[in-house]
Amino acid sequence: GGLPRVQALGLYLDDLECAQVSMNLLDFSVTPMWRVWVAVRDAAAGGGTGLEAWRLTLILAGLPTFVLALLFAATFTEPARRREAPLISERSATSIRGMVPFFLPLVVGAGAPMIIAAGYAAWAPETLKTEYGLSLRAAGAWFGIVAAVGPIVGSLLLPELVRRQKDRPFVEALLRVCIVAVVIGMAIFIAAPLQPEPAVLLIGYLFGAILMFGAYSTVIVSMQYIAPQSFRATLVASTTFIGSGIGLSVGPPLVAVLKEQFVGTYSDALVWTAVLAGLISLAAFLVARRASREL
User: Fold this and answer.
1) Mind giving me the DSSP string for 112-162?
2) pLDDT tens digits, residue range 102-127?
């Protein structure tokens, strides 16, 4: 499984105490020979053994962010400041419980794209090396460049797009921009790893990161305007901590599990990671949009 247009059969040779792979490569333009060789090599090396120690370390590394968010929410008191024009009604701002139906899906929608970002950060250089033939040095260097540029551009561009929609309520403009960014970004992250050229994967990550990371940053920035004064700092910090925690603890192991247990290649695992994270983010933003109309 995981190699389209390939017919293969594995045979165990008792007298030689080894396994032999026999295959028919039906279309090398769909699945090149080197990708088949990598898949066989990984299987022979004992892939698919589950969560190893380093993956558990990644998961555990993400957990403290959730703990810090909870401690921050429980102990921090917002300092007095000049009161701004409220964008969320005072009726819903009287208690944090009344804000949960809106702010919880908003935070989840912002954090889910970080699953894609962390998954790519962990596995894109290896994908470029094993499936696209780049050296590890070149793969790391090129991915490092696009991974630095994309989030910066997205963090500057998308909040500005929200601010320019002066004819709409701020919350409606925020959610509209985030939903469109997630839909287009998810499509890019699905299509890019399926292309045969490494430049397409890198360019796709660049534009996908502008949109997906931009949605995450836009929600963080917008909390300064839409969150009630008494909970503003808590929600800004919680959005930041939860987003990074979701990405670090879910993204890299999700790609690894998908690759080893289900799809067989890193590129296909990145595609399905984008599908899952994108759908979670989109659904959460739509729930937040519906809840905002009741505030």
Assistant:
1) THHHHHHHHHHHHHHHHHHTT---HHHHHHHHHHHHHHHHHHHHHHHHHHH
2) 999 999 999 999 999 999 988 998 89
